[in-house]
Write a structure and sequence with these properties.
Residues 221-430 form the Peptidase M1 membrane alanine aminopeptidase domain. The protein contains 27 helices and 32 strands. The chain is of the alpha+beta class and 885 residues long. The chain binds arginine (ARG) and zinc ion.
């Protein structure tokens, strides 16, 4: 039942306008849908086939007359329609039983919708595909006391009271849109409102709707929205095209947020923040998600996708835009680099494993069973890297010209990734892109992370340094042979003092100071730099200029040189990571060795970073953070998760003990006194301070000393913001010190009415270090806690996904009980909410890399899930692909 990209055909019918009328009721909502239809005369005459799911169909009228129809599976089929007609469909649904959270559902006594990708068919019969764009008018009717606020897309044109304590509101959206951008909200909500005047001199109203107790937590989201509007206008010339722009928060939501036209619906996690309840990371996530959804208004809504295979057209581009937005707001060069490092960490720890596993798919997939499974880090994050490479190839100004041409050509249409690529290339005729475009587009069609191997040869006689690159991409499901990619490689060469050499390629006049951009197009190719009088240290793939793995046989001395001097902060960080990876993988592979075998050179280098007079705290924190267990596992051919954990934990403890004096100095130096603000500089300080405290508690427990745990407890109690409070609590929990127990209790008592904080409380406990297999019993106990709920996605994820995906040592148990637990929860969730279940199902994606007995046990657990009858398409697709690995 897989859908193939190659099977695309235009719709047989167009829908010009939709007039929807809702009588909202949690048990039985009535939906009257009047559509103006027009046959697509480019195609042979075909019946009209409308999608519908879990709907009760009451009536179908064609031009006001009762009409015959038939059902074909989930489709309502109408034959012999006139070329233009008005179709009226009356259905009912039960929003309160909608636990899938797709279509119209109830959360905390309010109504919400989620239509992307295919939820609109759960509201009414429709041509549920993104290339059918229509004008919408929507009338909402509901009990006035229970649902005082009635919202939909566009502008409010009428409202008033009705009989029986009911009222109505009529909304008209001035823009045509695909049905996946439809939204409605009804409930007891309050709103923060802000009027703005944009550069273009137009007035707009921005609103953020939340439950009444949450209004004081919306200031940061509103500021983020104001910044987003200004940024898109300044950077890309894209203004707000609506009089009214609304954000509504709901605590029951499958994903992060949704860009419905003029009425974005958000998971509360990405709206609500106060210094008492949200961490610096929460503040920064809110800024980027608010930006992301806002930027979709142009990249996604004004220009949308022709079909769902083109999903990265809007998601990759919009992630790129939100990354650029956060980078520009971060300000300093160092803060910009920190943002890039964070984004690359996400790519490497989530997308690279996806690209190497059974769910690997191209940025533009060729087939899918369930589109919800393809809202992936490949579509989003790798898609954003592909967009970033255009900018690297045509330059920032060239990229902006490309975006302008893209809108000139395609505004108001549903288009493809090819259309985007062509616009960027055509806007930059004298750049390298046009001639490389067909090959560049392999980034859309070939899955897998390319591996670029580089070798450098210095020739003293000719004073040249030759870099030879070869690229290779491993086979992925359904793709055995890969052709070479276009890979932009930004690089520099460091001299013995750590300065960038001027770069001149043999036979070329141009001299580059600092970095130069090379472009790889062949399986193997060489570049010869002239005028090099001593062997340099190459700094390759600066800023991660392409989403590839770079293999270069660096010596420790070279890496230490880069860590100390590289002018590119990304590669400076990268050098530290390589030093750590080399040590960790050596210790993991030599099981006879002492796992804590960090040498003095490494420790001294880390000490030098901590003591560095000018490096930012945020950057220091990133350098001192060891590569994650997931990232380390990806560097191995066979993974023993317990060994990986033991080695990394031992390395952390050694850093804790050997740098103790420096952690103490760091802790003292990073105390913040002024008012709380979540800006990059003070967030960085708090992050480094938290890291120091974590290491001091680790060292204390290793040495049987209670001083630092006691300090952490005090800090926990006295903290004036959630970042410091939570960092102190994590330091205690992570060290395994007994003071963690009363602190956890106190934390719960303080925040028992704050759902988002309780999510943190649950997640922290299930990701605590596993002591004698105690995590799993603890997870089971927490699932019986009165605050636990399987139906709320945030809560289910905070306990179950956090355990299965963020605590490898607790999850990968020798007795396979973790896998047993996983399979039971996947099945249990699948009956409630297939999207949440299918995400959890991916926790065992990398089973085939595991050492025995984990490998066999994991496979059996997956097979048990796959054997279950009545599985959702979502979960079925994930486990079927896993078993085929
Ligand atoms: N378009 C949304 C975003 O990226 C995500 C949509 C969620 N889709 C889903 N099938 N749950 O912001
Ligand atoms: Zn998006």
């Amino acid at each position: 039942t897989a859908i193939q990209r190659a099977d695309y055909s235009a719709p047989a019918w167009w829908v010009d306008s939709v007039d929807l009328c809702f009588d909202l009721d949690p048990i039985k909502t009535r939906v009257l849908n009047k559509m103006k239809l027009r046959r697509n005369t480019d195609l042979p005459v075909q019946a009209l086939r409308l999608d519908g799911e879990e709907l009760n169909l009451a009536r179908v009228l064609v031009n006001g007359q009762g009409s015959t129809f038939k059902m074909d599976g989930n489709q309502l089929v109408l034959s012999n329609l006139p070329d233009e007609c008005e179709l009226e469909i009356f259905t009912t649904t039960c929003p309160s039983k909608n636990t899938k959270l797709m279509g119209l559902y109830v959360s905390n006594d309010s109504f919400f919708t989620q239509c992307e990708a295919e939820g609109f068919r759960r509201i009414t019969y429709f041509l549920d595909r993104p290339d059918v764009m229509a004008m919408y008018s929507v009338t909402l009717r509901a009990d006035k006391a229970k649902y005082p606020v009635l919202l939909s897309n566009g502008n409010l044109v009428d409202s008033g009271d009705l009989e029986g304590g009911r009222h109505f509101a009529k909304w008209v959206d001035p823009h045509k849109k695909p049905c996946y951008l439809f939204a409605l909200v009804a409930g007891q909500l309050v709103c923060r409102e802000q009027r703005i005047t944009t550069r273009a001199g137009k007035d707009h109203t921005l609103q953020i709707y939340v439950r009444s107790g949450d209004l004081d937590k919306t200031e940061h989201a509103m500021n983020s929205l104001i910044h987003s509007v200004a940024w898109d206008e300044a950077r890309f010339g894209l203004p707000l095209d609506l009089e009214r722009f609304m954000i509504v928060a709901t605590s029951d939501f499958n994903m992060g947020a949704m860009e419905n036209k003029g009425l974005n619906i958000f998971n509360t996690k990405y709206v609500l923040a106060s210094q008492a309840t949200a961490t610096d990371v929460d503040f920064s996530n809110i800024e980027s998600v608010v930006g992301h959804e806002y930027f979709h208004n142009w990249t996604g809504n004004r220009i949308t996708c022709r079909d769902w295979f083109q999903l990265s057209l809007k998601e990759g581009l919009t992630v790129f835009r939100d990354q650029e937005f956060s980078t520009d707001l971060a300000g300093t060069a160092s803060a910009r680099a920190v943002k890039r490092i964070e984004d690359v960490r996400v790519l490497r720890t989530n997308q690279f494993p996806e690209d190497a596993g059974p769910m690997a798919h191209p940025v533009r997939p060729d087939s899918y069973v369930e589109i919800s499974n393809f809202y992936t880090v490949t579509i989003y994050e790798k898609g954003a890297e592909v967009v970033r490479m255009y900018q690297t190839l045509v330059g920032r100004a060239g990229f902006e010209k490309g975006i302008t041409l893209y809108f000139e050509r395609h505004d108001g249409n549903a288009v493809t990734c090819d259309d985007f690529a062509q616009a960027i290339a055509d806007a930059n005729p004298s750049s390298v892109l046009p001639s490389l475009l067909p090959q560049f587009k392999r980034w859309y069609s070939q899955a897998g992370t390319p591996r670029v191997s580089a070798q450098g040869v210095f020739d003293a006689a000719s004073q040249t340094y030759t870099l030879t690159f070869s690229q290779h991409c491993a086979a992925t499901p359904g793709q055995t042979e890969k052709l070479p990619f276009v890979i932009p490689v930004v690089l520099g060469l460091l001299d013995a003092n750590g300065n960038d050499l001027p770069l001149q390629l043999e036979g070329q006049d141009e001299i580059h100071t600092g970095s130069q951009r090379l472009v790889l197009t062949e399986a193997s190719q060489s570049f010869c730099f002239t005028g090099v009088n001593a062997e340099p240290v190459p700094s390759i793939l600066r800023g991660l200029s392409a989403p590839v793995v770079l293999a270069f046989d660096y010596s420790d001395a070279q890496l230490l040189h880069l860590l100390a001097h590289d002018s590119d902060p990304f590669n400076r960080w990268e050098a530290g990571q390589r030093l750590a990876v080399n040590r960790a993988t050596a210790a993991i592979n030599d099981s006879s060795a002492n796992p804590a075998a960090l040498d003095a050179a490494y420790i001294d280098a880390m000490r030098a970073v901590l003591r560095h007079p000018t490096l930012d705290a945020a950057f220091k924190e990133l350098v001192l953070t060891l590569p994650s267990e997931v990232y380390l596992a990806e560097q191995l051919t066979v993974v023993d998760p317990q060994r990986v954990h033991t080695v990394r934990q031992a390395m952390r403890e050694q850093l804790a003990i050997e740098l103790k004096a420096d952690w103490e100095t760091t802790y003292a130096a990073t105390q913040e006194t002024g008012a709380y603000t979540p800006d990059a500089v003070s967030s960085g300080k708090r992050a480094l301070c938290g890291m120091a405290l974590t290491h001091l508690c680790l060292a204390a427990v290793a040495e049987g000393n209670d001083q630092w745990p006691a300090i952490a407890l005090q800090r926990f109690k006295n903290a004036s913001n959630m970042t410091d409070r939570f960092n102190a609590l994590s330091a205690l929990v992570g060290s395994g010190h007994a003071l963690a127990i009363p602190a956890l209790e106190e934390f719960h008592a303080l925040f028992k009415n704050e759902a988002l904080v309780l999510d943190k409380w649950f997640a922290l406990q299930v990701t605590a270090p596993d002591v004698g297999g105690n995590t799993l019993p603890n997870v089971k106990k927490l699932m019986k806690h009165s605050d636990f709920s399987l139906r709320n996605p945030n809560r289910a994820r905070s306990v179950i996904s956090s355990y299965c995906q963020a605590n490898p040592a607790g999850f990968h148990r020798l007795d396979a009980a973790g896998y047993q637990f996983w399979s039971e929860r996947v099945l249990e969730l699948d009956a409630i909410n297939p999207q949440v279940a299918a995400r959890l199902a991916r926790a065992l994606d990398r089973w085939s890399k595991l050492a025995e007995p984990y490998r066999t046990n994991a496979r059996q657990a997956i097979a048990r899930v796959a054997a279950k009858s009545g599985l959702s398409k979502d979960t079925q697709e994930v486990v079927t692909r896993a078993l085929a690995d």
